Amino acid sequence: MTKQPTQSGRQARGSLVVVSAPSGSGKTTLIKRLLAAVPALQFSVSYTTRRPRHGEKDGRDYFFVTRKKFEAMARAGEFVEWAEVVGHLYGTAQKQLREAEAAGQDILLDIDVHGHRQVREKLPEAVSVFILPPSFQELEKRLRRRRSDAPDVIEKRLRNARREIGHWKEYDFIVVNDKLRSATKSLRCIVEAVKVRASVQADRIAEITESFGG
After folding, report:
1. pLDDT mean over 168-174
2. Residue 47 contacts by C-beta under 8 Å, 6 or more apart in sequence?
3. Helix 180-194 and helix 27-37: axis angle, to 10°?
């Protein structure tokens, strides 16, 4: 999905895709499979104040920082969006998005429903996808099965999920993660379709129409 320069030498615009989901919906697994299938797609690494989980690496999965550091960045206006989730802060740095846009790079954001609202207000051209679990019961089963959170944290995540589900109407696309393979395919189709939107191809379209004397 690397962007190609137009005939005039101008860099084609990069696309911004936002993916959100209740905790336990399988979003992280879906995104990893998508990035493996589309290696040119760049993942926007968020900042967070939570501790790394097993296998996570700083700078790859998240930028792990202290709450003091995060709050200083927020006061300086360095985030395009940020929110507190289950007692931890998460945010997306504006600098990373600006650099990707300038390079014509397609970029994927993994953020919650509140972050999505902030991004859409500032970057209305962003395309958004909401991942749904097959049911509340399956979501609860997945959260308990992964054994990465204490029981009280799981209950909090389930309460948050009940609230977050109601935001699905704010998104452009919905993917139900009942079968991992088909859900991954749906997510990849969305990302591929985003590349050929008229707004993304504006410069190339202008050159083609000009060649017709339009």
Report:
1. 96
2. 62, 63, 65, 70, 73, 79, 82, 89, 90, 91, 92, 93
3. 60
Mean pLDDT of the chain: 88
CB of 43 closer than 8 Å to CB of 35: yes
Confidence of residue 195 (pLDDT cuts 50, 70, 90): confident
Cβ neighbors of 214 (< 8 A, separation 6 or more) are none
The whole-angstrom separation of Cα 40 and Cα 34 is 11
pLDDT at 101 > cutoff 80: no
What the block records as the tokens of 148 is: 């990465």
pLDDT for 12 equals 62
Q: Can you tell me whether residue 110 is helix, strand or coil? A: strand
Domains of the chain: 16-44+106-211 (3.40.50.300)
